[in-house]
TrEMBL record:
<dbReference type="InterPro" id="IPR005149">
    <property type="entry name" value="Tscrpt_reg_PadR_N"/>
</dbReference>
<protein>
    <submittedName>
        <fullName>Transcriptional regulator, PadR-like family</fullName>
    </submittedName>
</protein>
<dbReference type="Pfam" id="PF03551">
    <property type="entry name" value="PadR"/>
</dbReference>
<feature type="domain" description="Transcription regulator PadR N-terminal">
    <location>
        <begin position="41"/>
        <end position="112"/>
    </location>
</feature>
<dbReference type="InterPro" id="IPR052509">
    <property type="entry name" value="Metal_resp_DNA-bind_regulator"/>
</dbReference>
<dbReference type="InterPro" id="IPR036390">
    <property type="entry name" value="WH_DNA-bd_sf"/>
</dbReference>
<dbReference type="InterPro" id="IPR036388">
    <property type="entry name" value="WH-like_DNA-bd_sf"/>
</dbReference>
Length: 147
């Protein structure tokens, strides 16, 4: 296994990704997103307390353009049930009160552990994907019919 520096590393470099052009919509593997969404939510909320729709907008701003409220709100509710985030209602002049979320101490611990695991997994995947591939074999010729 490659040497991986263990410690907290930002999972999401918001400044770097928000500067990227957004003219192209990328489709993301829903299974990969499902596995990392909690980690992304915890990181975004650790950066700053946010309400649900704002989190959706922030995810979309970094390139996860296919992430919608129907994915984020259940994940936020689950993180709240698990005690990893806490919420407070703040009145809004433009509509109903907004529920602002932020990580709890358990949420910060989960973020640190999750970031370490993510770094290990991505290092392994990067190592495998960086290996050179042999030349693509030519298509096998059709077997000749037995006589």
């Amino acid at each position: 296994m490659p040497d991986v520096k263990i410690g907290f590393t930002p999972v999401l470099d918001y400044a770097r990704y928000s500067a990227q052009p957004r003219s192209v919509t990328f489709a993301h593997d829903p299974q990969l997103l499902k596995g990392v969404l909690s980690l992304l939510l915890l990181h975004l909320l650790a950066e700053r307390e946010s309400y649900g729709y704002e989190v959706v907008q922030r995810l979309q701003a970094v390139g996860l353009t296919d992430v919608m409220e129907g994915t984020v709100y259940p994940a936020l509710a689950r993180l709240e049930r698990e005690g990893r985030i806490t919420a407070r209602l703040v009145s809004s002049s433009s509509g109903p009160a907004r529920k602002y979320y932020r990580p709890t101490p358990a949420g910060y611990e989960a973020l640190t552990r999750g970031a370490e695991l993510w770094a290990r997994h991505t290092a392994i995947v990067d190592t495998v994907l960086a290996r050179p591939l042999p030349p693509t074999p030519s298509a096998p010729s059709a077997p000749s019919a037995a006589r």
